[in-house]
Amino acid sequence: MKLLLLLLLLPAAVQAGNREVSVRVYSLHKLTAITLEPANGGAAAGGRPLTRQARLSAKGSSLSLEGQHAGPVKALRASGGIWLSGKGLPRRLYGGELLFSAEKGRLRIINHVALEPYIANVVSGEAADFSHPEAYKAQAVAARTYALKHYQAHSGEGYNLCDSTHCQLYTGAAGVSARARAAAEATRGEILTYKGAPAETYYHSACGGRTEDMTHVWPFPGKPYLVSVKDGPPGRPYCSIAPGFKWKTKIYYTGLTRLARRAGWLVADETAKGFRITAWGTSGRAAEVEITTQRRKVKVPATEFYHGIGRRAGWNAVRSSFFKVLQGRDYVLLDGVGSGHGVGLCQWGAEGMARKGFKYRDILKHYYPGTEIKHD
Ligand SMILES: [Zn+2]
Ligand SMILES: [Zn+2]
Q1: Distance 99 CA to ligand 1 centre (A)
Q2: Count of domains observed in the chain
Q3: How far is the CA of 334 from the centre of ligand 1 (A)?
Q4: Whether residues 65 and 79 fall in one domain
Q5: How far is the CA of 180 from the centre of ligand 1 (A)?
Q6: DSSP string spanning 29-50?
Q7: Where in the sequence is the domain holding 352, given as residue range(s)?
Q8: What does the pLDDT look like over 10-35, one tens digit per residue?
Q9: 295 domain-assigned
Q10: E-assigned strands of 115-210?
Q11: Does 4 score more than 70 pLDDT?
Q12: Residue 204 CA: which ligand is closest?
């Protein structure tokens, strides 16, 4: 009895050999029905063979398959995977096992999939614009480590990870590039560790010339390997090959006022009349910005500003918090570099380093100083 309890209490992430992840798919969609279609033979739904399209829908806390009551949970195993589709949904192929359940009239879909195909999909999406195998490998190790480190992210909800950027973007088994598959295979089981434990491998698109110390970006305790590192020679950072590396965005005070009210930084009758940076991180990124109104100065953490603008005006408006503020008469011009939060691996920097002949191990050591690659 005691042994059994111990086994149950052992975190899933450290069980050697058991490398499967359960991922909630379509996690950002409110689903009531979905269409299943086996890719090629061998699928079963609830013990019955599934040979052609079938529609699964949620009613209260039960499911119906092709109009027939189908109990609370459905399990499917398909040799070639199962396509899922539905109105307003991207059509996606999933390998492994799919578990369906209904909760308050909504469908919940969990994909149990082996770790490496999951990693290949994440890498395929994250590294799609890269050309160098070593950049793919660096991304594969970072993504695998991230998955294992966050293995319990949704354990309270009955699965490991969600398929959105909250965890890592995962879009199933279709369209995975050969390069991504090869990178997952070449680094199979490798994770990045710090003092023997899996590292926190945050990554972002392009740092802009210098990555940022985590403590200037998020209000959490820092990590010795998530510190600011110089991304290559001055004036020509590794990530300067990123499309849109340099960007400029004009923000009129009228627009800033609207956004700031919606974000809750200003109240309804306040008008933005000034904008400046009031604190900087180690890299030179803004750490805090200040909006001046007719009666006060409102300080906003730069990360909150970046997210607030991104969510409301699109992520291309202010691509990072690495910018200078140039003052206009009724606007400010943000003159920036890079894109993303700037912590950990710079993805375009990895591609830049790879093109210069660095191997993925050098790349990972550069962006996560003091870490080591170990076999999981
Ligand atoms: Zn998540
Ligand atoms: Zn960079």
Answers
A1: 18
A2: 3
A3: 31
A4: yes
A5: 22
A6: S--SEEEEEESSS-EEETTEEE
A7: 117-204+344-375
A8: 334 444 445 899 999 999 999 999 99
A9: yes
A10: 161-162, 190-194, 197-198, 203-204
A11: no
A12: 2
